[in-house]
Write a structure and sequence with these properties.
The protein has about 280 residues and is α/β, with parallel strands linked by helices. The chain has ten helices and nine strands. Strand 6, helix 4 and strand 7 form a beta-alpha-beta unit. Bound molecules: adenosine-2'-5'-diphosphate.
Length: about 280
């Protein structure tokens, strides 16, 4: 199967605050802290990724920071995201701890990881983190449309510019996507491969075969073609490279529609089918 090579330029999407986010990022959820994480991030940077997505809850910020330093790539060329763990109280204190672990002066994006305890209480602290220039952009994750609307209503200086949610053809949250667009919030996809579950779906496989691409590339391209940033995770170098080759082909309208029809959410405006927090 053709996996293609990394195209030299990863397209970006302009956020409502004017900052730009690369449509391809590297996700490190469930990558253990230490050598494995640092090696995976190094492989991604060598393959041309310039966007790394970590979180306080992942426990691997130190390894991400080590890989950033070892790469020798200038800080401003890499878009770094981390996420506020909402089991803690103070987004400012937690981003300051993240910056120490990462060994950098600011993150490009800081988002509330999930709306534990309600969607609005942490937002003033997120705005403060941005005012202190600890984060260039701020946003949320796992927020439904109504939770996003509540957050926008309490925002006094900076509204959220991103909502990072589980999003794939099988979790085609069209109500959420259209609501986000209307509110000036960019939707970002996590688990675009369904943590691997969607890769052997027959429709995805058929489209991949006909386009000379891999199932992973088809699933990721389905997002990227809508200007939705993707964050595929892999600890295998060849897959890291494969997942980066998304911008030298396009899916036809009919293939996009066939993939849309795989939706199992009823085109929901919810972010999740179930919550892991109370
Ligand atoms: P691994 O890390 O062993 O390569 P998601 O991004 O939706 O969370 O999916 C990540 C999962 O999919 C991981 O288990 C990862 O396994 C696997 N994966 C990532 N890229 C590919 C690929 N190109 N082909 C097959 N499996 C992949």
């Amino acid at each position: 199967m053709t996996s293609g090579g990394m195209t030299s330029e990863v397209p970006t999407r302009k956020l409502a605050d004017g900052n730009e986010i690369p449509l391809l990022g590297f996700g490190v959820w469930q990558v253990p802290d230490g050598t494995e994480c640092a090696a995976a991030v190094r492989a991604a940077l060598e393959a041309g990724y310039r966007h790394i997505d970590t979180a306080q809850a992942y426990g691997n910020e130190e390894s991400v920071g080590r890989a950033l330093r070892e790469s020798g790539i200038a800080r401003e060329q890499i878009f770094v995201t981390t996420k506020f763990y909402p089991g803690k109280k103070d987004p400012v204190a937690e981003i300051e701890a993240s910056l120490r672990r990462l060994g950098i002066d600011y993150v490009d994006l800081y988002i509330i990881h999930w709306p534990q305890g309600g969607p609005t209480w942490a937002w003033p602290g997120m705005e403060r983190a941005r005012e202190l220039e600890h984060a260039r952009s701020i946003g949320v994750s796992n927020f439904s449309l109504s939770e996003l609307e509540q957050t926008l209503a309490v925002s006094t200086s900076t509204p959220p510019v991103i909502n990072q949610v589980q999003f794939s053809p099988f979790e085609f949250r069209q109500g959420l996507l259209e609501g986000c667009e209307r509110l000036g919030v960019s939707l970002e996809s996590y688990s675009s491969l369904g943590t691997g579950r969607h890769l052997d779906d027959p429709t995805v496989e058929t489209i991949a075969k006909a386009s000379g691409r891999t199932p992973a590339q088809v699933l990721l391209r389905w997002c990227a073609q809508r200007e939705i940033p993707v964050l595929p995770k892999s600890t295998h170098k060849e897959r890291i490279i494969e997942n980066s080759a998304l911008f030298d082909f396009a899916l036809s309208d009919s293939d996009m529609a066939k993939l849309d029809d795989l939706d199992t959410t009823g085109r929901t405006s919810a972010a999740r089918e179930g919550k892991w927090w109370s």
